[in-house]
Amino acid sequence: MDLERLLADRLAPAFAAVAGGPVDPAVRRSQHADFQSDAALGLARRLGRPPREIAAEVRERAALADLCAAVEVSGPGFLNLTVSGQALGGLVSAMAADPRLGVPAVAGPETVVVDYSGPNVAKEMHVGHLRSTVIGDAAARTLEWLGHRVLRANHLGDWGTPFGMLIEHLLDLGEAGAAQELSMGDLDGFYKAARAKFDDDEAFRERSRRRVVALQGGDPATLRLWRLLVTQSESYFLTVYDLLDVTLTGDDFRGESSYHDQLAPTVEELDRLGLLRRSDGADCVFPPGSVGRDGEPLPLIVRKSDGGYGYPATDLAALRHRTGALGATRLLYVVGLPQRRHFEMVFAVGALAGWLAAPVRAEHVGFGSILGPDGRMLRSRAGGSVKLVELLTEAVQRATALARERNPELSEAEAAEVGRAVGVGAIKYADLSGDRHKDYVLDWERMLSLDGNTAPYLQYAYSRVRSIFRRAGAAARPDADVSRPDAEVSLAEPAERALAIELVDFAAVVEEVADGLEFHRLTAYLHRLAVAFNAFYERCPVLRADGPVRESRLVLCELTGRVLRQGLDLLGIRTPERL
Ligand code: ARG
Question: Does ligand 1 lie within 6 Å of residue 115's CB atom?
């Protein structure tokens, strides 16, 4: 258990006794001691007593002797809590002996669907899809590590009216030529050429329309051509996932087309439930509380006036499938904030239909945009949207150059490997380390810097740990899942204590992140940990220390390495042995 909770559990009964009812002890980290409790201040008015007096009484009543070396009333009525070295050492030892680093697998595993990435067939994946892919992958990894059953759902845009023109364009190019163009990843060129013909050429437009009808009617020849487009795009997306080092595979594609057969039954069910209303020839649901800017009720269109189903109907069918057939109790949608309204309405309709009822819940894990250094939407030099592959390639090139410069003795292969881990890690970290609701500015210098809240800084701290063990000569235990099980941890130096306090906080942070999916809380934690480790390493000799002190410090080093590796792994970031 983490210290904050441990202390709160001890303080709660004392506060309750003083206040005559339950009180949250409000324990948090403090500048003046290890922790402080502020609850006495909030109680003062209610109890009509000076806060210092309340704090003093709680101090007398609380059973803290085995945990704290000092408990002091300070300022207007804070309780300052200093944890004893022995209690802290015990927590560190227990964590070091646990392969799961004090983070238990959840008692009640859930089936969680993580809907992420979701690029569109025959369209370039852009930086918006990057954020979804990076954040979604971190969510999938984290929940899986906690023991949940995670189903990755890549909601590929692979259906709809554009496929008429795309198939006709494919026929114009010839299958072989089109396949060649698509496999090279020139998806945008393909899409734009099709679009241009559609806009300028009446005959092409007519062919495209007929083709959509054939596609929806299940014409085998048309379906084969459609499949060709989908397969080519999928294989291209898989190369991007590989480059990006995410856990999505070919088995995770759950394209919009896969809900095709469920669209009519889904809408029929809404109809049976009496939820449908006709509006301008379309079938709509008006979820209560959904109003536009003008105050008019806002409909979710489930069947268009031409009888076709669109994006909203597909999401309703997917939601119904996920909570029904798949039995998921938590649905995550990692999609940009511009789609917030869409998901609010889909969830509201899901609730009306009874597909989404407690304890089952759906969450839109929204995020802001990626901005260029000028603070505007990220653009390529030519002014178009930036291709994801180009961005990744640039990151890896920059990081490889940096690795070579720092470490000339790295072999070509090693430099390439480190460059990839650092470059891709830097991009992911930059994305994950800010509040995801906000836009973030892509800044190469900053994200590749070895100083500051960056992936390279953490990877460097990890490689520092590894180099200690290489120098120790002793079994460098890169894969050890417990640290020197018998060594006693003694924490005499302030820098050792400070490091230990960070270490034992890991479980609480992971738990919080699994709940709110705010990964910047995990990055901030890992950064604090690395800072504490570097300070410890500067002040406390490890290999030159004697006997038990050396052993104890080696435990701190090893545990720091394991937490950094595990924490970065949850974020999908690699930890090379050498940097
Ligand atoms: N293909 C969509 C887009 O590019 C994202 C899909 C998100 N997932 C979903 N279930 N709607 O905007």
Answer: yes
Q: Are 311 and 155 in contact (CB under 8 A)?
A: no
- Give the helix/strand (H/E) hosting 532: helix 520-539
Atom of ligand 1 nearest to the CA of 335: 7
pLDDT bracket for residue 381 (50, 70, 90):
low
User: Residue 166: which residues within 8 A CB-CB, separation 6 or more?
Assistant: 121, 122, 190, 191, 194, 229
For 499-527, write each residue's pLDDT tens digit. 999 999 999 999 999 999 999 999 999 99
Please give the distance, rounded to the nearest whole angstrom, from the Cα atom of residue 27 to the centre of ligand 1. Answer: 41
Task: Establish whether residue 366 lines the binding site of ligand 1, counting it when its CB lies within 6 angstroms of any ligand atom.
Answer: no
**Contact call for residues 341 and 374 (beta carbons, < 8 A):** no
Looking at ligand 1, which atom is closest to the CA of residue 120? 1
Reference 326, options 386, 234, 262, 402; nearest CA is 262
Long-range contacts of 265-272 (CB under 8 A, 24+ apart): 266/302, 266/313, 266/316, 266/317, 266/320, 267/302, 267/303, 267/309, 267/313, 267/316, 269/320, 269/353, 270/302, 270/316, 270/349, 270/353
Pocket lining: 255 vs ligand 1, CB cutoff 6 Å: no
Residue linked to tokens 């470490």: 407
CA–CA separation, 25 and 32 (whole Å): 18
* d(C-alpha 250, C-alpha 235), whole Å: 8
Q: List CB contacts of 123: < 8 A, sequence separation 6 or more.
A: 157, 187, 188, 191
Which residues, including other chains, have CB under 8 Å from residue 523's CB and lie 6 or more apart?
429, 432, 433, 453, 571
Number of other CB atoms surrounding residue 70 within 10 Å: 12
Least Cα distance to 133 among 164, 163, 158, 156 occurs for 156
How far is Cα 135 from Cα 120, in angstroms, rounded to an integer?
A: 18
Instruction: Please check whether residue 106 is in contact with residue 148, taking contact to mean a CB–CB distance below 8 angstroms.
Output: yes
DSSP assignment of 265-331 equals HHHHHHHHTT--EEETTEEEE--TT-B-TTS-B-PEEEE-TTS---HHHHHHHHHHHHHTTT--SEE
Q: What is the dihedral of CA 442, 447, 452, 456, to 10 degrees?
A: 160
pLDDT tens by residue, 430-440: 999 999 999 98
**Alpha-carbon distance 222 to 219, whole Å?**
5
pTM: 0.94
CB count within 10 Å of CB 541 equals 12
C-alpha to C-alpha distance for 253 and 557, rounded to whole angstroms = 41
CA proximity to 286, closest of 297, 274, 294: 297
CB atoms closer than 10 angstroms to residue 84: 17
Q: Containing H/E element for 461?
A: helix 455-472
- Biggest CA-to-CA distance, the chain: 88
d(CA 327, CA 155) in angstroms, rounded, equals 18
Choose one of 253, 315, 339 to mutate for the ligand 1 pocket test, by most ligand atoms within 8 angstroms of C-beta: 339
- pLDDT for 331: 98
DSSP H helices, 76-200, are: 85-96, 127-145, 162-173, 175-183, 187-200
- DSSP states of 369-401 as a string? -EE-TTSSB-B-TTSSBPBHHHHHHHHHHHHHH
The secondary element (H helix, E strand) that includes residue 262 is: helix 260-272
CA R_g for the chain? 28
